[in-house]
């Protein structure tokens, strides 16, 4: 697949309903994407990230079960995607589609061929704003997702599993000083390709020199 940088950045979508649950994903391809992810910046060049790649069917099923339980709670909360912007007909319709696709992923997370969990070695989580901490994981995780997109793989950034972080850590043998930050389902996608998403105009969120 040949794709320009601009097209890659504007068409890397959250893939949920279009994940191909039946087609195996070669581990070497996942490792190739992660090798690219390791070129991302890391705070103070610590590189304290770890990547747990889950392909075992029983473990994927167990993680999927935890994810679905967390989804059910989230779906009923005020922060649920389907409940947002209810007073804006245009955005409400989009939110309903997002909610439906998120529900589909929750029901099928355990069937996704590869689950990638990005982690950081952290002796203790700091109080207050943690942007500086997770800023050492997010760029690398996004680089993984971009590399996957360039290779015909679909992904989605998810974090609902963190409601069961301890249970999943036990399942996978993750040490106590390692914290999970993201769960990235990874699979080939169905259909042709992806287009640009509808976003709010830049001028509605841009602030120059002051708010």
Structure notes:
It is a single chain. The chain is of the alpha+beta class and 211 residues long. The chain has helices spanning 5-10, 27-37, 57-75, 89-108, 131-134, 138-150, 165-172; strands spanning 49-54, 114-121, 153-155, 178-188. A four-stranded antiparallel sheet has the order 1-2-4-3. The chain is globular. The model has no long low-confidence stretch (mean pLDDT 93).
Secondary-structure-based class equals alpha+beta
Going by CATH, what is the homologous superfamily of the domain at 5-56 and 113-194?
NADH Oxidase
What is the alpha-carbon Rg in Å? 18 Å
Q: Average pLDDT value?
A: 93
The CATH architecture term of the domain at 5-56 and 113-194 is 3-Layer(aba) Sandwich
Number of DSSP strand runs: 4
Count of helical stretches: 7
CATH fold group of the domain at 5-56 and 113-194: NADH Oxidase
Shape field: globular
Helix content: 25-40%
Draw up the topology in text:
Layout: H1 5-10, H2 27-37, E1 49-54, H3 57-75, H4 89-108, E2 114-121, H5 131-134, H6 138-150, E3 153-155, H7 165-172, E4 178-188
Antiparallel strand pairs: 1-2, 2-4, 3-4
What key attributes describe this structure?
four-stranded antiparallel β-sheet; 13% strand; globular; NADH Oxidase; alpha+beta; 211 residues
